[in-house]
Amino acid sequence: MGKLLEIRWHGRAGQGAKTAALVLAESVISAGKYAQAFPEYGPERMGAPMQAFDRISDEPILVHCNVQNPEIVVVLDESLISVLDVKAGVPENGIYIVNTEASPKVMREKLGLVGGKVFTVNATKISMEFLGKNIPNTPMIAALIKVTGMLDFNDVVEDTKHKLSKKFREEIVQNNISAMEQAYKEVASE
Fold first, then answer.
1. What is the residue-averaged pLDDT of the chain?
2. 50: helix, coil or strand?
3. From CA 165, how far away is CA 151, in angstroms rounded?
4. Cβ(67)–Cβ(5) below 8 Å
5. Where does the chain show beta strands of DSSP type E?
6. Could you give the domains of the chain?
7. How far is residue 85's CA from residue 143's CA, in Å, rounded to a whole number?
8. What is the pLDDT of residues 65-106, one digit of tens each?
9. Is the pLDDT of residue 162 over 60?
10. 50 to each of 12, 14, 53, 76, 90, how far by Cα in Å?
């Protein structure tokens, strides 16, 4: 990881983008690296577009401003693509991970990308199946780990269990883990 890696999460309030960024940061720190995680809200109401961010490095992070040029963009709600410029500031070789039933090729066209890499997973379907709600954050964490290989998946699962068990009963925690395992298997690439 040598250099500073920046990630931007796009979601709607209530879909868990903030929690996803925090869980990822905790996993990074558990792996002995440095991390920052923080959200950015517009109108604070359920369903409103929001963003969360991660910074990851092997060395202490001295930057304390918004993420302007993320190498990775994770989109928890495909409908945001037509409302926001999710490509803003992303380098030509950036990575996009989108919650959609569409193929990576279709998403590439929808995003209007020439370069970079596009990955998709139907995290909404997975979260509905395992959680009974459209909260695609844990499946999207799994997709991010699969795509990047930045952390050991089993370690992330353990960190997620730890983080979620502070707020939720065991059944909900286990359902989130099952959703992660399914998403990890189903991530599609071009």
1. 94
2. strand
3. 21
4. no
5. 5-12, 34-41, 49-57, 72-75, 95-99, 117-121, 188-189
6. 5-189 (3.40.920.10)
7. 21
8. 889 999 999 999 999 999 999 999 999 999 999 999 999 999
9. yes
10. 6, 10, 10, 10, 17
